[in-house]
Automatic annotation (TrEMBL), chains A, B:
Keyword Membrane: no
SMART domains, alphabetized: HTH_GNTR, UTRA
Entry's Gene Ontology BP terms: negative regulation of DNA-templated transcription
Name of the protein: Trehalose operon repressor
UniProt cross-references to SUPFAM superfamilies, sorted A to Z: Chorismate lyase-like (SSF64288), Winged helix' DNA-binding domain (SSF46785)
Span of domain HTH gntR-type: 2-70
High-level lineage: Bacteria, Bacillati, Bacillota, Bacilli, Lactobacillales
Organism: Ligilactobacillus apodemi DSM 16634 = JCM 16172
Example GO molecular function: DNA binding
Length: 238, 238
DNA sequence: TAGTGGTCTAGACCACCTC
DNA sequence: AGGTGGTCTAGACCACTAT
């Protein structure tokens, strides 16, 4: 299943990451890229628009596609990204300690959203960076659609297992970030000082068919927390 | 300048917001929408894809475009949105108190990014919600491209002025969220308790021609801070 | 089988930038 | 004037979902 516009986007992204196109350079023109890849203009443009959304390039009318300089900080952080992916791409050499994995009842609500699945697999994982606890992740993997989870998956990449082994199409998530006092058990696991709050990220993730499949609460040590985002202005006013 | 795909997107977004299409409904098929708006398929699809990016609909192969239920929480918050826009669309009836407005030197760096503009207009604004200080915004509006700022603009909507009066095209931003101890002067303005940290959002915003124009540091009271995001999974792996 | 969305094409016209 | 990206069209073929 090789979509042309995705292959072009990946190829150009590779070349940008590997410095074959430097920040400040212009990519070849759309016409040239069409000839290079043997594709029509709309297909080539779809690839370029994808790169623009990610913040890798900026398209300038009448001039060309300019390579931006922000990927090093921004690249994989916004959007839906797993801890493992982040760890890999930022070279954090972090460590994951699985504290619990068990099956049980699913939460009935996530904020105001009612959850239909009755069962769930609960995982609790502590992320350790530089010998210091940094993040405590509590995940409910909803059943359906996830019925079993091999023991070692939680230790490594959950998303790789869901996408590659189970063939699930992870598509979108709603996320909420707040700062809160947390219960003593959690504070202890994160080695928080007395009354020190944690950054709490709650997210509900969906498959392409709109089934919710994962409900996550991440507790971050405030001194280790950093959220980086690249955002384009989305106007939809009237 | 009425782009067809934008007009279709706005029209459909209106109808979703005004409950003419309910969550769980399918929009008319692409073919029907083409006939309805008198446009080609690709143009209609561009509008639908825009709505999908915003999280208003989810496209399902072989079925149709499903109206999602998340806009009420998520709608205008992620991306680049001004406080005034948020205030309006969430009905926060917040209050803005302009503490300072003066011209001076621009900061030389924003994180690792060097700033070329030498001059800047500095604005300090306190956002008050329910009689309580909630956010302290410090903005540097870079000169160039912004040379003057009428007195009352800071009190109302800066973005409306930049986009509508100056005709600037606000396009993208990099944003960084951390939790930090802040200097006493700032802690006092936010009425923070002793040693209570603030949520600090630093952002650098750019025009469509890649000129940086605004450098903002927002200090949030942690108990008032909430960041809501709708994110689609962006894969660009190899 | 009929309807749906997903991808792709080969053209057209326009607005913008540069020379 | 010539090159660039932005928009739009009218088709085509495919894969998926229903019945």
């Amino acid at each position: 299943m090789g979509l042309k516009h995705e292959m072009i986007a990946q190829d150009l992204a590779e070349k940008i990451k590997h410095q074959q196109f430097l920040p400040g350079d212009f990519l070849p023109s759309e016409k040239q890229l069409c000839e290079l890849y043997g594709t029509s203009r709309e297909t080539t443009r779809k690839a370029l628009n994808h790169l623009a959304e990610l913040g890798l390039i900026q398209k300038l009318k009448g001039k060309g596609s300019l390579v931006l300089d922000i990927q090093k900080y921004t690249f994989p952080i916004s959007g839906i990204t797993s801890f493992q992916e982040l760890n890999d791409s930022l070279g954090l050499h972090a460590q994951t300690k699985v504290l619990q994995q068990k099956t049980g009842a699913a939460p009935k609500y996530f904020g105001q959203t009612p959850i239909e699945a009755k069962k769930a697999i609960f995982i609790e994982r502590l992320r350790i960076i530089d010998q210091q606890p940094a993040v405590l992740d509590q995940d409910y993997l909803l059943d359906p659609p996830i019925t079993v989870l091999p023991k070692d998956v939680a230790q490594h990449s959950l998303y790789a297992y869901l996408e590659n082994e189970l063939g699930l199409e992870i598509d979108y998530a709603t996320k909420e970030i707040t700062v809160e006092q947390v219960e003593p058990a959690i504070a202890e696991k994160l080695a928080l000082k007395a009354n020190e709050p944690a950054v709490v990220v709650r997210s509900l993730s969906y498959l392409a068919d709109t089934t919710p499949f994962q409900l996550t609460t991440s507790y971050h040590r405030p001194d280790k927390f950093k959220f980086i985002d690249f955002a384009r202005r989305k106007k939809l006013n009237h």
